[in-house]
Each structure stands twice: as structure tokens, then as C-alpha cells.
Design brief:
With 307 residues, this protein is α/β, with parallel strands linked by helices. Helices cover 48% and strands 11% of the residues. It has nine helices and six strands. The strands form two sheets. The protein has a four-stranded mixed β-sheet with strand order 1-3-2-4. Strands 5-6 form a two-stranded parallel ribbon. The longest helix is centred in the middle third of the chain and has 37 residues.
């Protein structure tokens, strides 16, 4: 069963599309309802607050084995569409709690006309890049090369590891912690609205914005205090400035293209304040970077400098 939220009379209970989510052992696509991919045009009742874009909510029950894109498309179920704030809350109040959805089930919210698939033309340039994952890969390669005494590789991985940590990982992690919690204690609605608690429990919030300091401390104290590598302060400053510039460009592009600020605080700031806030973050990042170098290198002399 699927619903267009133009018909409020249909919304008397949980979606039938999702009531099968407790059947853990079944991989039958028929268990999750009819494969309807379009609910037709959205009505906008007078007096309701219209969203900038119309959205569709999709449900999928992933099979236990890897499937191709055609089978994945057949497993998708469109369970609702919204065009106003009121329609969204009507939809949200009639679905199961996100915390009750077990493994291998997904709820995905996409713009109307876009399927939650990489094969959709609108998603072909999508993706994600996580700085910590890149650094973790290099760190593992460095440790493995030390264990097997592979000195040729280790000499390079140590330099790359030290450079990434000093230039980007250390300053950006401290920047996230300090800026996030500073804004949180002033007004959490400006950085992490309470509604997000439904999606991100408290422990996940702290994992992203607090506990990241733990690996920083370990890396500083355990690994690099006795490192034989010393890097150029000028080079790492240039890298951090370039990284922040690219990030801010992408951040602004999202607003220009979609009309949405990724963080609510930008909505309440003027353009002059937004520029000032961005420059303040860059300044803090550079300060944290220098602090990190001091902690890593200490007062030791005679270390090899990266060319």
C-alpha cells in the first residue's frame, strides 16, 4: 500500500508497505508491497506551507545476497510523497520509528523524480569522501610496513601519515569539536536541531563531535612524539587553506543549487556574518594546526625535513 499525502483519509495507521519489516528471513520482494514508482502530481492545499521541492519517501528491504541494479530497483517501494510542511509531518507521524527499523531495511528521502539509485542520472556524480578514512588507510599501511620491516615503503608512508595528520586531520578535528559544541551551548537549534535526535542518538552525536579527540591524543602521544619527520609549516598551511576553500565552495554550491544551508546557523546570519564566520573557522584551523605541530615535534632538533 502506498500513499500520496493529498488524501489524509488514508492515513489511519502504519504503512502496510513497512509492516513486513520484522520478517528477517524473507528475501521475497513481494513481501514489501507493490512496486509503484510514481504517485502522480502533488496537490498543494491552500494555507499549507509549501516546500521548495517535492520529495518522495522510499522503502527497501535489501536481499541477503548481492543483487544487480535491476533487482535492487525491483526491491524499492515508494510509500509516500510530500510537497508541504504539513504533508511531511502527516507522513512522519504515520511511519514506524526509525530506531525500530532492523538491519537490511532502508528509508530514503529523495526529491520527486529521482530514485535512490546510483543509476539515476541525477545521482551519477554523487558520492562521499571521508578524510579520516584516507588517513586511517595510510596509518595502517605505515604500521604494517614497520611490522614487516619494509623500510622503503615505510619511509614514504610515515611522511604521508605525518603530513596528513598535521595539515588536515588534527586541525579539522579540533575545529569540528570546538565550533560544534560552542554553537550547541549557545543554541543547539543552530547546529544540531532536536528533531535530528530521532535519526542520530546521543552516542552517535558524541562519536562524530566529541570522541574524535581520542585518536588525536593517541596519535600525538604514542606515535609522533619520537617521529623522525619534520614538515614545512608553510606547506601544511597552504594545504589547509586550499582544503577549507574547496569545502566552503562546495558548501556554498549546495545553497546556490538547492537553496538549502547544510547548517541552520547560516540561515540566521547575514552575508557579511557568513563570510566572517568562515574566515574565523579558517583562522582557528591555522591556530590548531600550529598547536599540533608543536605537540608533534616538541623542541627536538635535527629532524629530516620533507622536501
Amino acid at each position: 500500500m502506498v500513499f500520496s499525502l493529498n488524501q489524509r483519509s488514508n492515513m489511519s495507521g502504519k504503512y502496510d508497505t513497512m509492516k513486513y519489516h520484522h520478517e528477517e528471513n524473507s528475501d521475497n520482494d513481494e513481501d514489501i508491497g507493490l512496486n509503484i514508482t510514481d504517485l502522480g502530481p502533488i496537490d498543494y492545499p491552500q494555507g499549507e506551507h509549501r516546500l521548495q521541492h517535492a520529495y518522495c519517501l522510499w522503502f527497501s528491504k535489501r536481499p541477503s545476497q548481492v543483487q544487480d541494479s535491476q533487482n535492487y530497483s525491483q526491491a524499492l517501494r515508494l510509500i509516500g510523497q510530500v510537497g508541504t510542511v504539513e504533508q511531511w509531518w502527516a507522513l512522519y507521524s504515520h511511519i514506524i520509528r526509525l530506531s525500530d527499523i532492523p538491519a537490511h531495511r532502508d528509508l530514503q528521502l529523495f526529491k520527486k523524480g529521482i530514485k535512490p539509485m546510483w543509476e539515476d542520472p541525477s545521482n551519477k556524480k554523487g558520492g562521499k569522501w571521508v578524510l579520516q578514512c584516507v588517513f586511517l588507510t595510510v596509518a595502517i599501511a605505515d604500521e604494517v610496513s614497520k611490522l614487516i620491516n619494509f623500510s622503503i615503503v615505510q619511509s614514504y608512508t610515515e611522511k604521508i601519515r605525518h603530513f596528513l595528520f598535521s595539515s588536515l586531520v588534527f586541525p579539522n578535528s579540533l575545529l569540528v569539536i570546538s565550533v560544534f559544541w560552542s554553537i550547541w551551548f549557545i543554541d543547539r537549534e543552530l547546529i544540531f536541531p532536536r528533531i535530528i535526535d530521532e535519526f542520530y542518538p546521543w552516542w552517535l552525536n558524541h562519536t562524530l563531535h566529541t570522541f574524535i579527540i581520542i585518536p588525536l591524543i593517541i596519535e600525538v602521544v604514542v606515535r609522533f612524539k619520537n617521529s623522525n619527520v619534520r614538515i614545512s609549516r608553510r606547506k601544511i598551511a597552504i594545504v589547509l587553506i586550499a582544503f577549507c576553500s574547496i569545502y566552503q565552495t562546495l558548501f556554498l554550491t549546495v545553497y546556490v543549487v538547492h537553496g538549502v544551508w547544510l547548517y541552520p546557523i547560516y540561515k540566521v546570519l547575514t552575508w557579511i556574518q557568513r563570510v566572517g564566520f568562515s574566515l574565523l573557522q579558517l583562522f582557528l584551523g591555522l591556530v590548531y594546526q600550529q598547536i599540533g605541530l608543536f605537540l608533534l615535534e616538541g623542541q627536538e632538533k635535527g629532524k629530516a625535513k620533507i622536501k
